[in-house]
Description:
The chain has 282 residues and is of the alpha+beta class. It contains four helices and 21 strands. The protein has a domain at 1-71. The chain has a six-stranded mixed sheet with strand order 3-4-5-6-7-8, with no helix packed on it.
Amino acid sequence: MxxxxxxxxxxxxxxxxxxxxxFRGTDSNTGITFGSDVIGFATxxxxxxxxxxxxxxxxxxxxxxxxxHISGTGVQDSRLRCTRSxxxxxFGLDGSxxxxxxxxxxxxxxxxxxxxxxGSLRFRVxxxxxxxxxxxxxxxxxxxxxxxxxxxxxxxxxxxxxSGGSAVRILSTGLLIRQSSSSRYKTDIADATxxxxxxxxLRSVTFKHNGTGEEADDNTYGGFIAEEVHSIGLTNxxxxxxxxxxxxxxxxxxxxxxxxxxxxxxxxVTTLETKVAALEAG
Length: 282
């Protein structure tokens, strides 16, 4: 094949191959090749990179299907790696074909995965597995926790119903916890001193929520006022915010208050029944 060199076409007439590139150094099977609207780069007699007529780049891929297309048989052959100082990150596939985003930091916050959208930080995956949405105050050190600055919505949870399960509480810090009644999770267990007299101080009310927007609700509900429950001394059943202000009433715990009141009423009824029976017998 003739090699043409002139001022108009440059060097032309030879395409070369992966085993014999047209441009090469002292290594005869490493260099640049050409084809019909394509450029290839070979090492060791094998084409490693190809740029096709659409401008797509294939790494170990003869027919790139995207702007950058990487193919490989080994794990590290199908990943991208970025390194800065002592930290690095990889993006690609694992041996099972799963998408992998791996931050390999050396210490501290190095190794966290962060995501930006619209120029602002939107999420972080901490090195202990905690997933943080937005920039909230993180009040848990438990590994693999979900922490959100906004709300958590789960349509599937609402539409799934059941007849059993444990109650869930939301603490003033925003943490969700399972409410348990087992003695394994309690200390300082003692008989309650409140009862019927306290129940008689409660004011049952009906009310509507004053929320607006997505919190708007025109339904009428029944219950108690947290400030009033607090003021009569039933603080065991009041939820407080970070300023120690009454925020809500723990209605599920008030079952114990009502049970104690029923026991007192039953004792009174039993006493009266005994007296009536004695009178009738006399």
